[in-house]
Amino acid sequence: MNVTAATAPSLAPYTRASQSLTPQSESQAAPQDQAQLSEGSEFGNAVKMGVGGVGALALIIPCMYAGVIGGAVVGSMLGLGFGPIAGAVTSNGFLGMVGTVWQSTSTVAKAGMVLGGVSGLLGGWATGTGIGNAVGRLFGADKEDPSKHVKITGPIKGTIGAITVGGGALAGGVGGGILGASVASAGSLIHGLTLNGFNMAAMSNMGSAALIGGGIGLVAFGAMGMMGGYKVAKTAARLVDKLTPQDKPPVQQPTPPPGASTKAA
After folding, report:
1. How far is 111 from 74, CA to CA, in rounded Å?
2. I need a labelling partner for 31 at 20 to 30 A (CA). Which of 23, 100, 105, 138 fits?
3. How does pLDDT run across 107-151, given as a tens digit for each residue?
4. Looking at the domain assignment, is residue 265 inside a domain?
5. Domain annotation covers residue 4
6. Is 174 exposed, middle or buried (0-12, 13-18, 19+ CB in 10 A)?
7. Separation of alpha carbons 68 and 111, rounded Å
8. How many structural domains compose the chain?
9. Per the domain annotation, does 80 fall within a domain?
10. Same-domain check for residues 130 and 203
11. pLDDT at residue 256 above 70?
12. Is residue 171 packed enough to be buried (19+ CB in 10 Å), middle (13-18) or exposed (0-12)?
């Protein structure tokens, strides 16, 4: 019994020191390792920024052109669809109805051009930087933290999301199809004129080339326009969350012990 009592106090400081040193060393080493892992390779980061910047700058101009052209076409079609209804209700006489249809068509076309251009800009930038991130990771670039997820739910945010994402996809797809068909048919015409001279044989393949180019442009620019419209929807959802009051869960009061009420009484 005397040996146990003598040895117990001598072992206690040793065990406490050993237990307190191990967590401190791990906690001090963990942030350093995480910082080294998050920095990545300098060459990989340079590749990511270089490829992403070149890709984004190369894509935003044609995406904006496609979005503006497609937005004007889609907006004009929507304006022509809703214009007669608004003109029949608000105007007097045939001339007043025609003026209302023209004004509504012009207004919706301008809105479509703005939405298509912004969606093309954001979609081209997101696609270019996404390619840069993918290539940079092959050379050891750091992985960017994922952005905070924004829920696009509810009547307000859902409606805005449907309009922006759908409008961006339509504007980019229509404009991309027009640009793709134009470029492909022009290339086929130049190729035919170079080989055959100015005759009907030079223009024989313009139709098939226009279909192929238009299909490629519709899919590619439609996807980038959809991505840009989703970026617009996320920004609008954040703005709606800031402007509308958020429902906070009720604060739960601690329940008193069973005998507390009787003692207070």
Report:
1. 10
2. 138
3. 888 888 899 999 999 999 999 988 988 888 888 877 766 555 677
4. no
5. no
6. buried
7. 10
8. 2
9. yes
10. no
11. no
12. buried
